[in-house]
Specification:
binds zinc ion, 150 residues, 9% helix, mainly beta, 1 helix, 14% strand
Length: 150
């Protein structure tokens, strides 16, 4: 997980929690809303390197108790590391660039396949090509941090 030298292009986005972090009835309504519109879930757990937001627990499911080991306060995602900044499926239904795709990449055609170097500008491979999150205590950021990979 050693990043290559690159340029940071911060982009402000809105990130929403995934279904695992929503009350079950709301998660079900959200899933039905997407299905009715034939939309992928492109509103939650934005991929890529980011500060804050919500992590996608696609590999292990979210831990039942995501809480600080020192005081039991909730843990919050502080920083996410990701192998890829965006995924090929992250395009709008009409082929328009998707909001997850970094602004500086929206003008270029996507390369078919997983070997597009523009998707991995940082050059870090997290785990086996996934992502990881550094979580901090919501009550006291001086408490020990936790790191989870997916
Ligand atoms: Zn704490």
């Amino acid at each position: 997980m050693i990043p290559r030298a690159c340029v940071l292009h911060p982009e402000r986005i809105t990130d929403y929690p995934g279904g695992e972090e929503l009350p079950p009835a709301l998660a079900e309504r959200f899933g039905a809303w997407l299905e009715e519109r034939d939309l992928p879930d492109d509103l939650t757990t934005v991929p890529g390197h980011k500060l804050g937001g919500f992590m996608n627990w696609c590999t292990t499911d979210r831990p039942d108790a995501l809480e600080c080991g020192a005081c039991r306060a909730p843990l919050e995602l502080f920083l996410q590391f990701d192998t890829a900044e965006w995924w090929l499926g992250s395009w709008g239904p009409d082929g328009a660039p998707h909001r997850f795709r970094p602004l500086e990449e929206r003008g270029r055609e996507p390369v078919d396949g997983a070997e597009d170097p523009a998707r991995e500008p940082v050059g870090m491979t997290v785990g086996r090509g996934g992502h990881g999150g550094l979580f901090v205590c919501a009550a006291d950021p001086r408490h020990p941090v936790s790191f989870f990979t997916q």
